[in-house]
Fold:
Amino acid sequence: MRKLKLQVQMSIDGFISGPNGEMDWLVFNWSDDIKKYVDEITKPVDTILLGKNLATGFIPHWAAVAADETNPEKEAGIIYSTTHKVVFSKTLTKSEWENTIVENGNYVDEINALKQQTGGDMIVYGGSQFVSSLIKEGLIDELHLFINPAILGKGMPIFQEIQAMQKMNLISSKHFECGIIVAVYKPLQIE
Structure:
């Protein structure tokens, strides 16, 4: 069975953006050690899952990076652009992007069906409501929480849909030179 990983940037107090979507608190100047970590967790990934709101920024951003010969992240842009993507939306009916399909059905059923297919790992990159609903439904197999050295006080939480306690098992934690700590959790029922 395929594994679904979550990679998300968050503040110390659990927000993925400020109250108006502010991202100025994120550490953008990543050190080589965290870049290597991201390469390692994305290497087995062959499918990216996105909610519509994140997709509208994520996909064009990485396509532009891939097309820019002077961008130091060009290689990452090519990887993100060429990796198969599934966008979950209630309003989009077809994809306007390459290597991307749109799913309008029940996301729980669709993701469980994707997990049963042969292939590599899948990864999801945030979107507070989408990711929160995936966690609520127990669809995430590994949570890679990139904790940035900032406290926001208020903002968009990632766990707002959770209605019952979910126990997690800490698999690893690592401090990176740029100041980010990555904590990796698995739900206890997943081995």
In short: Residues 4-187 form a domain with the Dihydrofolate Reductase, subunit A fold (CATH 3.40.430.10). Helices lie at 32-42, 52-67, 74-82, 107-116, 128-136.
